[in-house]
Amino acid sequence: MPTRAPISDELRSAVGSPTEATLLDSSPRSRVWRVELRGGDRVIVKQITDGGGTGFDGDARYAREVAALRLAARATRPAVAPALLGTDPASRVMVLEHLDDLGAVDDWMPGYAESLARLHALTGPADTGALPAWSGPTAADADSFLALAKALDVPVPPAVPNELVGLIDRLDPAPHHALLHGDPCPGNDLRTATGVRFVDFEQASLGNGLVELAYFRIGFPTCWCAVSVTAAPLAEVEDVYRATWRSLTGTDVLGDLADACAGWLIRGDALVERAHRESVDHLARVSAEDFEWGYVSARERLVHRLDVVADLTRDHDRLHALGHLSAALAARLLERWPTLRPLPAQNTRPWY
Fold first, then answer.
1. Cα–Cα distances in Å, from 80 out to 77, 192, 198, 256?
2. Which of 37, 157, 158, 165 lies 20 to 30 Å from 59 when distance is taken between CA atoms?
3. Residue 331 contacts residue 337 (beta carbons within 8 Å)
4. What angle do CA 79, 346, 102 make, to 5 degrees?
5. What SS3 state is found at 204?
6. DSSP string covering 21-60, please?
7. pLDDT in tens, 181-222
8. Three-state DSSP class for residue 233
9. Is 231 helix (H, G, I), strand (E, B) or coil?
10. Coarse DSSP helix, strand, coil percentages of the chain, rounded to the nearest 5 percent
11. What pLDDT was estimated at residue 244?
């Protein structure tokens, strides 16, 4: 619907005068307009609001997105994000390049993985402090995961608590400086004539890129559109990501994908949309109630993640006991609630 976009006189002088603005769908945390400029050009105007639940306030989310877009602008030929054309910090407004989205294709994941690796490779140790460090799982997450096993009457192998301590330590983002999107979900990427570009960097951070490469295996943990990626496409996208990273940095990707997946497994906040995170112990809810996010329930997401971790850690030196516990928990969930469905095995994108 047409509406007035919040473009200040300073922004008008920088990007041009609007002739028409159309309000687009967006999250409760922002308002987004497609704006026609005099002369026929188009831009996107985004204003960060205070809505959308707990977490970063509007000023912090605005500063984070602007900083991430400026870092992402280092990528050229092709770009990995829209260009940032102007900002108005007082109103939390940014003006962005308008991108023509070519729409979905069946084989979307390799291009997505390549652009994700290119995004991650843009930053290094010299950028420390440019964005907050990625926030990994905590001791409280580990305790909640162990409490879930107890609530479901699944014995915890003696080695698991120490394995979880080691896992949390290894997931410390301090040694890593990849530019993480923060929510690299289908819908936050656009397929353009020059490749995939990412949008909505309000949760960007610096850390290990494996925590976002893990999205393919673990079922897109911060996304409503959870899917299960089958073996052949999964191998391809991980190969594409690693090869792209190697070509850009001259090094292999550091870290362990099993660690990254296990980190997502034990985080209860990864079972709910952002508005409900940092509120209650969502893993504790699983034994008493099921709850949906999108078209998949929390228990269904959890079973998928448990199966992934069990498979990845079958011969893992540092997570072997956690793998056994994960397999037992998945079996118990299916035994107690046999109507739980597997995640949709989709390599296309019906939601997009």
1. 9, 10, 6, 25
2. 37
3. no
4. 35
5. coil
6. EEEE---TTEEEEEEEETTS-EEEEEEE-S-SSSSS-HHH
7. 999 988 899 999 999 999 999 999 999 999 999 999 999 998
8. helix
9. helix
10. 40, 15, 45
11. 98
